[in-house]
Amino acid sequence: MLNVLTSKSVHALEHYQPKLTVNLNNQKLWRRLDWLDSSRLFSMSVNNEGHLWLGLDNEIAFYDGSEVKYYGTEDGIKLNKITAIHALENGNVLAADNKRIYQFKDNKWTLVQTGLNIPYSAQFRTGHDGATWLPAANKLIVFKD
């Protein structure tokens, strides 16, 4: 279900406090992905298994730690600069550019919403109730699966 709220009906429930339990400056934690051209990378998300979903310039990459699978126009995705991508708790994935939102569910991509004005800095966020939010010009989009 997709709902659209105007900016006048939204407020924060609590302040965001990041919780880091590791020292990210430890070089042993990092690994270079030689197959990834960083000039094409616009967004990323990590799923429950620790695998990466990457929003690239015109396609989406899924990296399981050993292999990369690309999803693009042949998979039904018509996105430019995938600036927001989000792996949901249930295994589905949401991806957006500045006009469209797609969902990866049951191993296929489908268009969820189009005709939007999403800023390039917008990111998906999931609330305590499981709803996933994405800001767009003068509105918030909420997704409940």
What report would you give on this structure?
By secondary structure, the chain is mostly beta strands. It is built from no helices and twelve strands. A four-stranded antiparallel sheet has the order 1-12-11-10, with no helix packed on it. A hairpin with a 2-residue loop joins β11 (132-136) and β12. It starts with a strand and ends with a strand. The mean pLDDT is 82.
- Low-pLDDT residue spans: none
Radius of gyration: 16 Å
E-strand count? 12
Please report which band the strand proportion falls in: under 5%, 5-15%, 15-25%, 25-35%, 35-45% or over 45%. 35-45%
Order of helices and strands: EEEEEEEEEEEE
Q: What is the CATH-assigned architecture? A: 6 Propeller
Helix content: under 10%
Structural category is mainly beta
User: What average pLDDT do the residues reach?
Assistant: 82
CATH level-3 fold name:
Neuraminidase
Counting structural domains, the number is 1
CATH class reads: Mainly Beta
What spatial order of strands do you see in the largest sheet?
1-12-11-10
Anisotropy-based shape: globular
CATH homologous superfamily? TolB, C-terminal domain
- Characterize the main sheet: 4 strands, antiparallel
Keywords: Kinase, Transferase
Organism: Catenovulum agarivorans DS-2
Protein name: Histidine kinase
GO molecular function, one term: kinase activity
